[in-house]
Design a protein that fits this description.
Length: 190
Amino acid sequence: MLPQRVPIPPSFYAEDTEAPFETCLACDRSLLEDDTQYVIEKGYHSFAAYDVQETVFGYALCLDCHTTLSQSFSSESKRRCTAYLDKHVDLPQRTAALLDRDALDPTRWTEHCIVHDTPKQELEEYQILAHCQGDDLLLTHLPLMIGGTAVDDLVQRLSNETLDELGGFRDEYFGLPPELKSNPQGPVLA
């Protein structure tokens, strides 16, 4: 069965253009032409006292580059992260339930942390992920949102080898300031 398609919502747009991502971060491949599939990941930090949300990072990787990065994860990291997610999330059940009631509203898919079910507005930090093809968002096990606590739990399950790989990815493409380098951001889930 082919996944349902919906237009990419603005929450998954590039911050600098306020439009869909156009190229792969790693290889500069065009994402909006042909049938190129890609993954979008964005990280946010909220400042509740000011009712403000800041985008910490956002990027798109074509599936080829995403696969290359995923393959750089150690088998130990993959096993630990999979076990953690399997314990806390039933992705097939979640997907089926959302397709039954919210298929045409992908923003509903990212309202709660998939691990702890915490509403987005109660989170200080969170990440959202989506699987796209051209101008469409594909409703697979993505899109999803994961809160900062769950991201930290996943990071704790990563081997030193994988942490080094993610650190290299982060440094090469983002050059994050030192205060953000303690939490390696990257496609941990997709």
